Amino acid sequence: MPALWAYTSICRLDHALTGVAIHSRPFGPALEAQRNTAMDWKQQAKLIFNVEKPTHFGNPKHCCECAEHDQTLLAFDVDSIGLAQLGNPGWDPLCFSSVEGFQYYMPALVRLTLDTMDKPSETYIDQMLFHLLQDGADNRLVSACSEEQREFVAAFLQYLVEEYSSQIEAGAFTSDDILRAHEIWRVDA
């Protein structure tokens, strides 16, 4: 990992991501063009992660907890699932989801993150980063996503840093995690 990713202050965070843009391709041509205008991240997430809803998100026969989480994820869609279902790190049904389930719900993770950035008591960014990081580089979600999907996630993380630096700095672990997630999700040229 380059030394520049070891910085934790948000001032250096902005600089770190700017420096990365010089050395790598953080956005594909389509995302770069949209990024230069007012991009609707929620709508773009739906277009890029346009995945059919799975018939099951995990193995509901494994145990009662898996059955309950599967039932929760089946009862909602990308537009209706909210913090009540996904906001508790100790009882998050996405932790039991298949990769296809994660891809299906990625637009919801983007929506919940954006909708809560200015609400410190409800912020979702830490939980989103937990899911994006999983087991580090080449985790099952990163491996399953297309280059376009990975570019979108990396661009979204960079957008969050640029637009919400004070909120990110206020998080206990967020600034380190967002840098690690960006490193994992970006697509090298």
How does this model look, in words?
The protein is mainly α and 189 residues long. It has one domain. It has 11 helices and no strands. Helix 7 (125-133) packs across helix 11.
Strand and helix layout:
Elements: H1 10-23, H2 29-35, H3 41-48, H4 64-75, H5 83-86, H6 99-116, H7 125-133, H8 140-144, H9 147-163, H10 165-170, H11 174-185
Short characterization:
With 189 residues, the protein is mostly helical.
> What is the total tally of β strands?
0
- What is the number of helices? 11
Low-confidence blocks of residues: 1-27
Task: Indicate the radius of gyration in whole angstroms.
Answer: 16 Å
Residues in helices, as a percent range = 55-70%
- Span between N and C termini? 17 Å
* Largest beta-sheet details: none
From the structure provided, what is the oligomeric state, counting identical versus distinct chains?
A: single chain
> Structural class of the secondary elements?
mainly alpha
Mean pLDDT: 82
Q: Strand-and-helix sequence, N→C?
A: HHHHHHHHHHH
What share of residues are in beta strands? under 5%
Q: Describe the global form.
A: globular
| Number of separate structural domains | 1
